[in-house]
Amino acid sequence: MASEADGNLDPTTGDRFQCMAKLLALVAVFAAVSLVVNAVGGEDVAADSSSSASDSSADADSADAGVGTPDQSLDTVEGQFLVSGSSTVFPIVQRQAEQFESLAPGIAIAVEGPGSGDGAKKFCAGEVPIANASRSFKDEEIAICEEAGIEFIEIRRAIDGISVITSPENDAIACLSFNDLYALLSEEATQTDTWSAANELTGTWGGQEFADIPLDVFGPGEESGTFDSFAEIVIESVVKGKTGLDPESREFSEGIRPDYTSSPDDNVVMEGIEASQYSLGWVGYAYAQESEAAGRAKLLAVSVEDGGNCVIPTAESIASADFPIARFLYTYINADAAQNQPGVADFVDYMMSDVGLESVSAVGYIDLPAEGQAKAQSIWADRLTGRQYE
Amino acid sequence: MSVKPAGRPDKPTLGSLQRSRSADVRGQVFLGLLLLAVTLAIGMVFAVLLSVIADGADVLSSRLWGFLSNPSSSDPVKAGVVQGIRGSLLIAAIVSVVAFPIGIGAAVYLEEYADGGPVTRTVEIAVRNLAGVPSIVYGLFGLAVFVNTLRGITGGSSVISGGLTLSLLVLPIVIITASEAIRAVPSSLSDGAYGLGATQWEVIRTQTLPSAMPGILTGSVLSIARALGEAAPLLVVGAAAFYTTGFQGFLDQFQGAFTALPMNVANFAKLPADQWAGHAAAASVVVLVVVFFINLVAIVARARITKRLGR
């Protein structure tokens, strides 16, 4: 009866649901294609990992021999977890997770880099078993972890230098002391747009005299660990009198000037530096080094005190702590997850192994010196919880 | 005044035509501005296309298949967008399954059944306003509801959460476009069907919906294109910057870590420019091709339906 009615009403008898069918077909196509794509992707992952395994068979061997690498095969271990935390540490962990996949194809690892603070929040809420930080956890973060009953294992991963940079065309400046940086970049320098404006400050302590050239400042934004570290290492050193100035002699401000071009994206910072001849800025060493190698930026030498030892950031000078603006990168591991969550301990073992540690320098960071490495290894091996570094 | 008499002759003489042209300076200026607007609009589209294609050409020409079939990687030579393609297609499927039936159903109800009273009007206004809510707000909602509250079903930050969030995002657009398509169906069609004694359900099924289908399809597919281009909500919902897949079961494919093409673009763009310059542009080209393909499907489907209906 229904079909009779349709026949009377619809000039396109039999096609009445064709339109709907089209829509459904579209959906089916999407679903099918995405599953096929997934299958292809899966294949390729396998192909990729096998090729990279054969590429680096020597690496794999040394991984087996590496410190802390477990004896049993990882082929059958299954697990999945998320690594969160610092965007600075992200590239190291990404590379390690990628290479770990060929050793332990069953362990699915997702890596994100929302920032050290966000990572700490998630870690202390028990949402992630591993969090990275470009500084050690703050006391209040540790308090939250303790309140939630989360025990953490703290290890140092690498060293990251913060480079002070300018345009390669800027011949006027070669070396800056912490005091110069204070005069150019602290809150007291707010509203100044020439290098020579800093002379008023440097003059009070008899520091460097700058030429009358325009000053364009670029740097990471407040959300960035690089911002925090720069303020902590450079500005606070001046304020606390570690740079040869008497902190009682005058009133020093603690912050960084708010009126500079900031971006969370290091590429944007670098572009600003390149575009302006008399630019000044700071970014992580890994980024600065690449730009310098491409001839697009100039790394400035830095000294702590006026007239002190000017040091250019290099892998060696950062590792030996001769270069004064450097920080340690940390990883925090949930002690309970390390014991009970499949794959977590295996991945940390890999991160700490010789072949895993190659990723540190491969993405542009500086390896810990041997004794620092040994300390991290032993903290992890003994599963020591709580703060381990001062 | 005498220039434009009401009862003006049908064929103006050449002289009067020229005179009206030269007198109509404002009209000519207006036409010029319109042409400028069209040129600028088209010029920008081409500028965007050319710049991404030019920037991505290196990557696309040297390793097209690898770029399309490899997962994300820290190695510029290995990095690819297969995970993004997979995520985007799954999101398109989820949006199709969730947003289309709900949106079209709501539109049919609002246009054909609702009484047009204050409640209906309020709903309509609400829907229109929802269409203008910034996408990041939907992301926050998705984080609160799909990722956190419904974690047991969605698996947390998964492609299900992302797909549902984007379904919500495009739902108002689907409702509005479908409503307008249904409203555009001549009332003579349904009146005639009613006159022949058809019930409301029969009229909607056999007359209104098929006639409105080209418009509904266009709106729906444009909304998929919108969903595929969104990165902000996915960022909040927690698209992974990098992940490996492990031995995934069937459910894990939907509940595990995910990413989408716009996220690939954003992630590539953040990497050091020297080695990664072309990747973001190349991924952008992939997004454009996918969206273009979907639009093409919509246009073809629409043409065929229109032809079949003989309109």
Could you say which overall geometry of chain B the principal axes of the C-alpha atoms support?
A: globular
How many beta strands in the DSSP annotation of chain B?
Answer: 1
Rg of chain A, nearest Å: 27 Å
Q: What profile does the largest beta sheet of chain B have?
A: none
Number of strands of chain A: 11
Mean pLDDT of chain B: 87
Can you tell me the residue ranges of chain A where pLDDT is under 50 for at least 5 consecutive residues? Answer: 1-14, 40-71
- The helical percent of chain B reads over 70%
The CATH architecture of chain B can be named as Orthogonal Bundle
Main beta-sheet annotation of chain A:
9 strands, mixed
User: How many separate structural domains of chain A?
Assistant: 2
Mean of all residue-level pLDDT scores of chain A: 80
User: Using only CA atoms, what is the Rg of chain B?
Assistant: 25 Å
What do these coordinates show?
The complex is a heterodimer of chains A (390) and B (311). Chain A has 390 residues and is of the alpha/beta class. In chain A, helix 9 links the parallel strand 6 and strand 7. Chain A starts with a helix and ends in a 9-residue tail after the last helix. Chain A is globular, with a radius of gyration of 27 Å. Chain A is built from 16 helices and eleven strands. In chain A, the strands form two sheets. In chain A, strands 1, 2, 3, 4, 6, 7, 8, 9 and 11 form a nine-stranded mixed sheet that branches. Chain A has a two-stranded parallel ribbon with strand order 5-10. Chain A folds into two domains: 138 residues, D-Maltodextrin-Binding Protein, domain 2 (3-Layer(aba) Sandwich); 166 residues, 3-Layer(aba) Sandwich (D-Maltodextrin-Binding Protein, domain 2), CATH 3.40.190. Chain B has one domain: MetI-like fold (Orthogonal Bundle). Chain B is globular, with a radius of gyration of 25 Å. By secondary structure, chain B is mainly α. The interface between A and B is large, with 61 and 60 residues. Strand 2 of chain A pairs antiparallel with strand 1 of chain B, so a sheet runs across the interface.
